[in-house]
Amino acid sequence: MEDLKLKYVYIDRQHACVDGVMLEHESQGGAMLSELYRAHIGDWPKFFKMDTLSKVGFLASDLLLKAIGREKPGEEYTSDCAVVLFGTTASLCADRNYQETIQDADNYYPSPALFVYTLPNIVTGEIAIRNRFRGETSFYVVEKADAAQMAFHLACAFDDDVTAGVLAGWVDSRHNDDFQAFFTMVTRDDAKYTDRLAAAIQTIMDNSNI
Amino acid sequence: MERIVQCIADNVVSPLGLDSASNYDSVKSGKSGLKRYDGIAMSLMDRELVESACLENGIPAARFTFFEKMVLLSCIKAVRDSGIDPSSDRVLFVLSTTKGNVSLLGNTAGFPEERVLLGVAARQISDWFGNKNSPLVVCNACISGVCAQIEAMRALMSGRYDYAVVTGADEQSPFIISGFKSFKAVSNDFCRPFDSDRRGLNLGECAATVVLKAADSVQDGWQLLNGAIRNDANHISGPSRTGEGSYLALMEVLRNCTPHHLAFVNVHGTATAYNDEMESIALFRAGLTDVPVTGLKGCYGHTMGAAGIMESILSMYAVMDHTVLATRGFAQQGTTYPVAVSPVNRTTDRRQFIKLLSGFGGCNAALLYRLNG
Amino acid sequence: MEEMILKLKQEIIEVLNLEDVKPEDIDNDAPLFGEGLGLDSIDALELIVLMEKNYGIKLQDPAKGKEIFKSVNVMADYIQKNRTK
Which of A141, A155, A84, A144 is nearest to B136 (CA)? Predict the structure, then answer.
């Protein structure tokens, strides 16, 4: 059986890489995300309202969908593309930012705009809204990045007959300037042999230092 | 040969009791865990009761956080009742929670900082049972408990595992309470699901566990038939005005049954203006107007990560008791489309039910259980 | 009043992360919600926090925000009349 090769996007605080090609940028950390958004996307002002986890996920998913030639959504909604993400930190970065707004009794102003991002699956919702995906959206938190575990649960997503493809990814963020993500698209055929899918995901992880 | 998935043991730990049967009896007799705390209604665990139950079960007090203690208490009895060997590599542990140990952010209480990570918290539970598999944490906002059962079902169908211990739990803390208050979603009074005078939700604490088993043929008992997760693709905090995701999830599970076989739909029914309205639209669109509807938030509040599992278990007990439970807090229809909710218990002889949930991030989930034999 | 309106616009831009919007882009009489700035229900809740944090105004009923956030002019006027700090 031939090896499976998946196109992927990788982003960390210093790098953004689309299918092996580094994107140019001058800034780093959170500022880099805004710079890349302006250079490559630019038509979704809600981006600036997102927390870091969602910004990274949104950017990586948009760059990936462009790279694999998926057309921008029109008026129509689709249910055939699921969004399934993994990570270890979940919403820790947003949790810390929100905690700051309630930590001090003399400066106690809980922020609804920060609170909403204290759920890690919000990034899956942001991607679904952007792409008009009405299929499954799931966020799984794991102990560490494990290609076999990810491949197993990605294959499980195809138990839903409606699912033809899974926009799959890894996304972590501990602070606003510290994040790591990779995104790829997995088809039903890609997921047929879980070991082969795990090997393909391991290759992406090796190439992206995850 | 296609495997089927059964529920072979369960447990609910809540302010209404430390096992499923006492919880069911309390709810059936009209009790509620909701009380007033500093002017706002919530359903909170008695901390001392939890500590003494831990002592009885040999759970060392200093080793686990309060959240983990709730999870352990709910797991230990369910695992014992199931008779499985929890340390086997054929057993998968799945934890459904929205915020886990988040209260440690405000005060670590001597625990390592990493404990706030959900994977690390889940590992404490697996380790207690000597299970070496990497635990899976499902973190899909308020629908997590249904998603966790769906994912466990898939993992069992695949043949990789024979059993799954699926626990849902959340602890209430200033973090969560202040957040929901900032969303103006909280009612100070006892919540009133689907009522014309509903004014928001109450928050609640609970931990609930189901033990699922893969079987090669249909056997007597509870079978998890199907489940689906769908996104509204509309807004990250507001439910869809057309009930899109809930409607799609309902239609997916209805492929495995017909409405007149359903004892009831156990809905999310948070008692916020938007949620209950949205669910009434989704139920109408899915052709379920005549199916009895029941909601448990008036007894437990919104228990977040526990909701999908605890509400499934209470639904199973209700079906076995030929009962459609009353929707506590409901008096008068208050949604655009009429929903078959009732302020009193009703009887049923049907043996299937749907559990429906929706949550932040635009996500919605439904699952279908059937009592065989 | 004009100074107050400019300050309010800057505060709105900051708390709502309206990254590419400048104060002069916001019409004093134009509706804050609906078309234009593309604000949503979370933004409305965040404006309620802004009024409490910066001006000491506690708004208990979020539905009241609908009237207050009609435009920057209406909002500034409400703040002038009700501020406690």
Answer: A141
Q: Where are the beta strands (DSSP E) in A88-164?
A: 137-141
Which of B171, B198, B215 represents a domain boundary (last residue)?
B215
Contact B199, B187 (CB under 8 A): yes
Write out the two tokens for B251: 């239609």
Q: Cβ contact (<8 Å) for A45 and C38?
A: yes
SS3 content of chain C, % helix, strand, coil (to 5): 60, 0, 40
Closest CB to A156 among B99, B158, B252:
B158
Q: In angstroms, how far is CA A27 from the centroid of its own chain?
A: 21
Averaged pLDDT, groups of 10, chain B, 373 residues long: 93 98 98 96 98 97 97 98 98 98 95 97 98 98 98 98 98 97 96 97 98 96 98 95 97 94 98 97 97 98 98 98 98 96 98 98 98 95
**Residue A87 pairs with which residues in a beta bridge?**
A141
Query: What pTM did the predictor assign?
Result: 0.98
Read off the tokens for A160: 């839903």
B12 and B87 assigned to the same domain: yes
Q: Tens digits of per-residue pLDDT, C46-68? A: 999 999 999 999 987 888 888 99
Please report, for the domain that includes residue B73, its CATH number: 3.40.47.10
Place of tokens 């009930």: B243
Q: What is the predicted ipTM? A: 0.98
C49 close contact with A: CB closer than 8 A: yes
**What is the C-alpha separation between A134 and B363, in angstroms, rounded?**
9
Q: CB distance from A49 to chain C under 8 Å? A: yes
Q: What is the CATH number of domain A8-207?
A: 3.40.47.10
User: B204 to each of A155, A170, B177, B270, B296, how far by Cα in Å?
Assistant: 34, 31, 10, 11, 11
- State whether C42 and B182 contact (CB < 8 Å): no
